[in-house]
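Thread title: Can someone regenerate the structure for this chain?

I was given the following input by a collaborator and told the matching C-alpha cells would be attached. They weren't. Posting the sequence so someone can regenerate them.
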Amino acid sequence: MSKPRIWISNTTPAPGEILRVRAQVAHPMETGFRSGPDGPLPMNIVTRFAATLDGALLLEWLPETAVAQNPYIEFTFAARHGGLLRMVWTDASGDFASAEQEIRLQG
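Best answer:
Regenerated them for you:
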C-alpha cells in the first residue's frame, strides 16, 4: 500500500466543533474472483480501517470484497478533546498503511 491521502476540515477546532475527515489509500482490492495468466489471482483486500484519537477508537470499518480499489472513506466526529488522530488500513496479507495528524483544540 502507498502512503494514504488524508484531508481534515480543521486541525485547530473549537471545542465541540464537528470535524470532517476524508481518507483514501491506494490498494488494488483484488477479490480473488478474477483470473490471471496462471489461474485465479489471490484475494488481497483491505480488511480493516481504524481511526483513533489519542488511542480511543473513533471508527472501525471492516470492508469486504464489494469495495472498489483505492478505498475512500469519509467520516465526522465532534472535537471534544485534542490529540493525535491516527488512521490505519490493514489488508488480508497483513500489510498496513497509516496516517497521523495532530488535532489541537482552540483555547
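The two ends are 38 Å apart (CA to CA).
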